[in-house]
Amino acid sequence: MATSTATMAIKLSNTAPENQDADSLQGYPNPSLQDDPVAKFNVPKDDEPLLTTRFPRIPRFSDKYEEREYLKGRLALAFRIFGKRGFDEGVAGHITLRDPVNPNTFWVNPFGVSFNKIKKSDLILVDEEGNMIGGGPCRLLNTAAYMIHSAIHKARPDVMCAAHSHSLYGRAFCALGRPIDFITQDSCAFYNDLSVYRQFGGIVFAKDEGEKIAKALGNKKACLLQNHGLLTVGQTVEATVFWFCSLEKCCHAQLLADAAAAGRGGSTIKINDEDAAYTAHSIGRPWPGWFSAKPLFEDMEAEVGDQVYQ
Prior knowledge:
- Residues 1-43 are annotated as: Disordered.
- It holds the Pfam family Aldolase_II.
- By secondary structure, the protein is an alpha+beta fold.
- The protein is built from 10 helices and 8 strands.
- The chain is 38% helix and 11% strand.
- The protein has an 8-stranded mixed sheet, with helices on both faces.
């Protein structure tokens, strides 16, 4: 009987890419975890060809200018994904990308331009002081975007990308001022990796408010901003986008589950800490976040074509 592709993939080498260090990927998959089935997932070495039986690796670049152009394209796709999913609310919402050429600056969407229309050439480059030093023809900067994201990028050198928007179920759940419960497998990706900012000071026009949000985020990958919305960060654009989309669905699922349970006079069943931690180890780290976003980006790329890269 012929060996299936899935079986072949599991039987192949389980070593992680040599150029994706433990700091950037938290050692995922970690070959030292002999008893961890996730460690048996196959990620290729750099000198191995990419085959259909091998998991893809995160692109790495020796030329920082080439990396910049690639990542700007991914950021433009990220906005299209947010737009299609209805994460825009008027002109609110922003995603930032730390510039690989000058890490003290970041790329962001121009204020007032539809997520569904953003192209790579529309993105604007902003420095630490909020000065627009490059980018597209519309040089309007959302002050709240600058206040929040500049504080995060300064406090978290490991963060390459940060996303915040006023998605429907995220802001509905954030009105509760509490963390999500771990009631589904997907929610476990945020186990011990989610914080809550339990105050609302209006639109973030002040530097200290942005710094408070960054402090509340801490070393986590996501934060629920009370009465406001969701915030996610990551070491790749893709992981950041996936965490946001997933957290939005987790909020939706909990709102539904809580309502259903209350209607029956009961409560939801929570996943125990041990199982939640194990699941987080499997699906909540940077590489699975990046990999999980692959279909989102491929679908959007197929839908919009090359125009997004203009």
